[in-house]
Amino acid sequence: MFSQDFSNKITITKNSKESIELDQRRVKIRENKNGLMAVSYLAPVFEIMDVEDFFEDMLSSEKLTMNISDTGEFNVSFRGIVDGKGKALPQNLDHKIILLQEPICPESIMDVQLTGFSRFRFRDEISDS
Mean pLDDT of residues grouped by 10 in the chain (129 residues)? Predict the structure, then answer.
């Protein structure tokens, strides 16, 4: 069906062209409807140290590109990196969660309930109601 094989890597690239590759077998990605992605990475400590070093000097909302299995790059914004919690891990494994934000379509932002918002009214209209 496809002319080429997919890789087992997720590549995240900074604007400076510096990049890091994550082993896809150790990654779980969750995304909410606002485009916020939680990239959960469970790996040996030395790989987690590389991830921490890569994101160490990044500012929140700095632009990155992400490529999952060589399917094509897409833009994301860095939101932070946090320690994963939960299961008791062996001494040589660590868990980090990388928070990324996909650009969202303005139309979805406009999908809000229009009732219930206050509206400007002149003083003389207030006394009439």
Answer: 72 92 92 88 92 91 90 91 82 90 66 53 61
Contacts of 95 (CB under 8 A, 6+ apart): 40, 41, 42, 48, 83, 84, 85, 86, 89
Closest among 79, 80, 36, 82 to 61, alpha carbons compared: 79
72: tokens are 């094509």
Q: What is the CATH number of the domain that holds 47?
A: 2.40.10
Q: Do the beta carbons of residue 74 and residue 66 sit within 8 Å? A: yes
As for how many domains the chain has, the answer is 1
User: Is residue 108 domain-resident?
Assistant: yes
Residue-number span of the structural domain to which 35 is assigned: 9-128
